Amino acid sequence: MAEAETDARRLATEARDRVRFEEEVLELADQVYRVARRLVSSREEAEDLVQETYARAFRSWRSYTPGTNLRAWLMRILTNLNIDRGRREQRSPDTQPLEEGDYFLYNRLEQTGGLEDAERIVERLSQDSIVGALSNVPHDFRDVIVLVDIGDFSYQEAAQILDVPIGTVMSRLHRGRRILKGQLAETTVGEES
Amino acid sequence: MTQFDPICEKCEELIQPYLDRELNEVERIEAEGHLSGCGYCSERYRFEVSLRRYVRQACCSEEMSPELKAKLAALRTPLH
Any alpha helices (H) in A40-138, and if so which ranges? Predict the structure, then answer.
């Protein structure tokens, strides 16, 4: 009798923990979607990826340790699924895009525009050109930019999510952002100037 | 100060990790010290700050559909 009661109590606790876990995971859905949307190229792919991520997260909820970083745990599932989906087979550019210094984009915009306030110059870039430029950044670099700049993850968290050393996160971020700026300069200013 | 100043070149390297809050104390003080006195770099720094905000806006403008949200909620374990 006492044993049955203990069992019942244990099951009740587990059910409660699971419900709480599921609620917390669902609260993060908007953030997960925003990251997913920039990791893949279409809305449909992003929706599929997020659904798969949630299905897997709900299935494997026991492997999450309460009190640890739930957002990073979810994002790790998402990035792993994205890699499993065969995105590595996607065509990557034959040549590595030209890489310039960090001030490159500003310098180009400044050369080709009139004297403007530094904060206004940025408005010459269109939203479409930004989204397009990001999607042209090779995967490995883009993943890190999306996690850090859109997902607000630290270098350390991004390293754990992608299962690479922190130094790799830093170098990919460094190069990736420069590639992004090079692309933006090309689409906004053109190559001729 | 001109753009060929090696300190400006160093600053160019520090701005991104500075914005990411990933510099150590010594580097942070070095970057802030240079930015407060160098017009060339501080202008570019202000550009980087607004560029980040702008990129984030552009990349987060598409919200998740209510249908997807409902689908995710439906994936939950049914309560017995």
Answer: 43-59, 70-84, 104-112, 118-121, 127-135
